[in-house]
Amino acid sequence: MQGRWAVKATVLQRIYRRSTGVATITLVVAVLSSSVASAQDRAAAQRAFEAGQYQQVVDAAGTGPDPSVLFLGALSAQKLNATDRANAFFDQLVKRPANDAWHSVGQSAKQLLAGDDEGALNSANQAVAADAGLSEASYALGLVLFKRQDWAGAAAAFDRASTLQPTFAHAQYYAGLSHYRANRPDLMAARFGRFLKLAPDAPERAEVQQIMRTIRGK
Fold this sequence. Notes:
Elements: H1 2-17, H2 22-50, H3 54-61, H4 67-79, H5 83-94, H6 101-113, H7 117-130, H8 135-147, H9 151-164, H10 169-181, H11 185-198, H12 205-217
Helix pairs in contact: 1-2, 2-3, 2-4, 3-4, 4-5, 5-6, 6-7, 6-8, 7-8, 8-9, 8-10, 9-10, 10-11, 11-12
């Protein structure tokens, strides 16, 4: 990823050197460098989350405003039963503009935590409508549908999140669980197989392997 951004920075420098001053070039490079740093932060948080290093993700979420890291920090706080901390991270997402998909993602997560499943569903649908390309929006929708035991709907939402972000291991995990409960062991096996490859150190690994052994034994 760094190499790609470095090439873009070099090209932009060549373009802008002919028509603008050094200050503009410096600004462009700074923006690109910031984008690289954000992407690296997101990747590091995702790896830690997938490995069950939840406190590390919570700590990372507390140092910056990146919405993806905040989202993972909130999910990690929930894993640690730190509901107040999770809500605090979701609150930061809700503070974003109302037309920002992340605003609705945070709102849906807060409503789901509070037991307002209907409100959570509406907010999650708003998030998807605001940005259909945001994998976390589909993931948030999947979490609501999963809690409502709409297994087919949840599977479709998690599959969409996986398509949008192929490295999103836990979207594969929940897709597998949803397909399993929707009585589609063939699709479950495919999703679980990808999950195990993406997150070899995940705390859910033993659970997934046990389910797959059970299905194969039938």
